[in-house]
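Need tokens for this chain, all 617 residues.
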Amino acid sequence: MTKQEQLHQPEHYDLIITHGLVFSGDDEPPQKACVHIRDGRVSKISPIQHGTANHVIDATGSWVTPGFIDSHTHYDAEALISPGLTESVRHGITTVFIGSCSISMILNDPEDTADMFTRVEAVPREAVLPVLQKQKSWRSVEAYTRFYDQHPTGPNIASYLGHSDLRAAVMGLGRATTQDEVPTDAELNQMSDLLESALDHGLLGLSTMTTKWDKIDGDRYRSASLPSTYAHWKEFRALNRVLRERGRVHQGAPNIVTKWNTVLFMFESMGLMRKRLKTTLITLMDSKANPGLVSLISSTTRQLNRFFNADFRWQALPNTFEVYADGMDLVVFEEFGSGEAALHLKTEIERNELLADLNYRRQFRKDYEKKWGGRVWHRDFGDALISACPDETLVGRSFGSIALQRDLHPADLFLDLVILYGSKLRWHTVIANHRPHVVEQIVQSPDVIISFSDAGAHLRNMAFYNFGLRLLQIAAVQKPRKLSVHRAVHRLTGELADWFNLDVGHLREGARADIAIVDPQKLHQPLDGYAEAQFDGIDSLQRMVNRPDDCVTHTIINGNIAYEAGRFAGDFGKARNYGCFLRAGEVAPAGYSATVPTNDENNLAVPRVRATEKAAL
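Here are the structure tokens for all 617 residues:
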């Protein structure tokens, strides 16, 4: 072929998406265009199709958006067991964050890691521990990132360093969960060094936890709270200095029962006479237990960011916060003493003996009736419906109505049914976000990020995998329409990517080809229906999922079609053709490939120069 013939040869692409309504991920209206993809990147966006392609998708009548970002998951274990993470990808998610809420799986041995993760996130320890024992060959951030560089992830993965993980690695899990133990100056310096190393390797920042009801599993330290909850603010401030200097993120959770230490998180975010600290906390919700609190928090946060130079963002969900439970297995029972006592016991026999004890029942009833003070659960069994039970006459009824019929106190009726049916008694209640107009106000606030799906955790308790579609539903279907569709897309994509400093979230020439194609007509159907599916990799476990799953017709990751018309690609979650490990502040080259890990010293004592020492130098 002559040079002149080559010049007239039509360009060839890996994939072309034609005639869709294309959203850039910026806060701007869409345009009808064709998206041309080559080598994992968007090569051209134009009004008409140019050249040929290996595959052409006709997106007429569809929205073509950047892939959605889920910035709060607990997929740490599932990413090892079943790395496709299909329950998110089928809903257009192309990037997930792990290591949230202080419990990354980086620095500790498999047993300590499993004990910190499994009870908190309601994932079976007996399934997670063997996987960690088989696969977790790392105990350093460098080895961890190299593992993910060669792991066949489905979506892109970014990670925090967890404070509980960090604290236990430096102090030992026993000392890290002892009330009167504090780290020595040398240990505090080591924590700062390890955090510096994590940021050097592209981690998002530090995740923390101060809610005491998050408890440790296993036999050695069972029912101790997570290590992060024992830290004093001197420790938090030392670690925040590293984050502040590097411009990285503190993801945390205040004590969501008492809530008072929210003020300390807010103060740490302020940038008066210092750099401000990017801070995001869980979670801003319209709580049934505290219905007036959401307005106070929203107003306070607005003033904080506007007048005190803070960079503070609440995480918020665009949907009703409904939870399910099998018997008594629900984290909200951890917020009061009698509930903690029951969940401390592993076997149903032990638990039933406790629930039948007269003194215990008196205390449980007293805790249930306590309406003042900090709480998350509204503690109203009249607002809790039975969804499954061996006695089918009870299905669809509330515990309160049955108690009234039987002339029992609702708390006694609940305990009787748990003793009788155990985990076969399945029930549900709405904790928060029960007023649609308030939810709409929350998701439009500039002081929130759309987040907190908790995907990969609480597998039998809740399912918000399609939270992105629920936000699009608010924008496209709910009337009167106050949130534009392009603004909703921006909140799910570019806004998050820019705040966390990641090379995703935008659909423009040169950007990563991580794309969701959405059928807007499907958004008119209910998106919050109850459904279950088998957990891929744990045969005995049924998980809650979101269906229907036909709103997203295609999910494209790294320019490859991962999901199309209800089916996943045959090599998805098995081959390194799709997601990668994302590093904050780093732009990957076109056609990136995995880096095969080499032997590494899994040594926690990473030699570092701390930020304070750098300043002195």
